[in-house]
């Protein structure tokens, strides 16, 4: 809930401070995601060295403190654009530490044959709040401004921290890794890239990171540019994407078996690219909502399958570090968000999203052609 609301509130505050600049949105995105490139490997090593739930709780406590500070600056009228950049860096660091433990702890709770269902169910909970979060934030901004929403976000972090404290695992969680932190990190990287399956999974993350998820960060600028929406209308657009994600993850959670998951990942990437290209040229609000729902559904299936395969094909003592490599890939997002944000300033957000869709489709087709063995991964 905190993540969904914060994405909406932060984006709206950026637009207010920067006169609706898509480049400013991209810079704040960089501030949040770039630390994940460096910190996620540390987060993965921490997940393998220490009890995962305490790593999660600690990062949530710091996230709450950062958000409370930003809320107070906004409320007093002292907030500046650089404050958003600084809070983005700190929240990005905490997310990089949080997420590897959050995903890896699932395998400590459920048996191996239920891992896909458990990961998908976990993602369903996250996607449900992605539906509610932006919608609530968009509505509440109208009445309480962004400062009030930031205070509520901090409360969500605190509630989440207290909830995680109640988790009990069937397996021991962390504490069995020997050696120093740097040694652990390099051992994880060597393990991941020496295994053909894990290496292929890492490469396929380029598809959503560089092209597919660009929609999440340029959507506010597209909505203002093409549809001239207000905060409540933007919240509805983001809510429909969350509804699609919830549908996809719940559907996957209900399946008893799922074969040829490698094939599904690549086909998913192709369909995602087509949907993004269609969305970019949507002539109406209704068609935009439909495309966003479909993209949300595809993104949820892609990420659930991907995380399932990463955890299935990694050893128990490496699971946190392998998960962190996937998170690290998302930290590379600025390599695409910044240039695409700059391109959007020149040719328009609509044309930029169309280009992203075509590149996503092309990458999926090329990867399929050169790595046909990936299609047989179960």
What does this entry look like structurally?
The chain is mainly alpha-helical and 378 residues long. It has a single domain, classed as MFS general substrate transporter like domains (Growth Hormone, Chain: A, Up-down Bundle). It is built from 15 helices and no strands. Helix 1 packs across helix 5. The radius of gyration is 20 Å and the shape is globular. The two termini are 32 Å apart. The mean pLDDT is 82.
Which secondary-structure class do the elements indicate?
Answer: mainly alpha
User: How far apart, in Å, are the first and last alpha carbons?
Assistant: 32 Å
Rg on CA atoms, Å: 20 Å
Share of residues in helices:
over 70%
Average of per-residue pLDDT values: 82
CATH class category label: Mainly Alpha
User: Could you please say which CATH topology applies here?
Assistant: Growth Hormone, Chain: A
Treating each run of at least 4 consecutive H or I residues as one helix, how many helices? Answer: 15
Largest beta-sheet characterization: none
Q: Total strand count, please? A: 0
> Could you spell the SSE succession in H and E letters?
HHHHHHHHHHHHHHH
The CATH architecture can be given as Up-down Bundle
Low-confidence stretches: none
Ordered list of secondary-structure elements with their pairings:
Layout: H1 2-18, H2 22-49, H3 52-75, H4 81-104, H5 115-164, H6 181-194, H7 196-204, H8 206-212, H9 214-227, H10 231-254, H11 261-280, H12 285-312, H13 319-331, H14 334-347, H15 349-370
């Amino acid at each position: 809930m905190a993540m969904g609301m914060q994405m909406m509130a932060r984006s709206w505050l950026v637009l207010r401070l920067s006169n609706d600049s898509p480049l400013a949105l991209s810079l704040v995105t960089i501030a949040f995601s770039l630390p994940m490139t460096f910190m996620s490997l540390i987060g993965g090593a921490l997940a393998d060295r220490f009890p995962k739930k305490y790593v999660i709780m600690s990062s949530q406590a710091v996230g709450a403190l950062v958000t409370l500070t930003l809320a107070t600056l906004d409320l007093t009228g002292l907030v500046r654009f650089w404050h958003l950049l600084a809070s983005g860096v700190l929240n990005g660091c905490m997310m990089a530490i949080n997420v590897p433990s959050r995903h890896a702890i699932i395998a400590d709770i459920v048996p191996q044959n239920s891992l896909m269902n458990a990961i998908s169910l976990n993602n369903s909970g996250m996607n449900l709040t992605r539906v509610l979060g932006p919608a609530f934030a968009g509505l509440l901004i109208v009445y309480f401004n962004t400062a009030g929403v930031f205070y509520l976000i901090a409360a969500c972090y605190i509630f989440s921290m207290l909830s995680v404290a109640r988790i009990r695992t069937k397996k021991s969680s962390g504490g069995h890794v020997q050696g120093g932190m740097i040694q652990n990190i390099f051992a994880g990287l060597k393990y991941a890239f020496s295994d053909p399956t894990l290496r292929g999974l890492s490469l396929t993350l380029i598809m959503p990171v560089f092209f597919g998820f660009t929609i999440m960060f340029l959507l506010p600028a597209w909505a203002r540019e093409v549809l001239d929406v207000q905060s409540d209308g933007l919240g509805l657009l983001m809510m429909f994407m969350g509804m699609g994600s919830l549908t996809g993850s719940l559907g996957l959670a209900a399946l008893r078996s799922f074969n040829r998951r490698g094939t599904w990942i690549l086909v998913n990437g192709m369909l995602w690219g087509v949907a993004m290209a269609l969305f970019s040229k949507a002539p109406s609000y209704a068609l935009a909502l439909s495309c966003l729902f479909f993209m949300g559904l595809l993104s949820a299936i892609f990420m659930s399958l991907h995380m399932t395969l990463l955890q299935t094909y990694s050893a128990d003592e490496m699971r946190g570090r392998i998960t962190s490599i996937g998170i690290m890939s998302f930290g590379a997002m600025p390599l695409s968000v910044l240039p695409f944000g700059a391109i959007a300033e020149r040719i328009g957000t609509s044309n930029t999203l169309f280009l992203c869709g075509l590149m996503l489709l092309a990458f999926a087709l090329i990867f399929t052609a050169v790595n046909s063995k990936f299609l047989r991964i179960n």
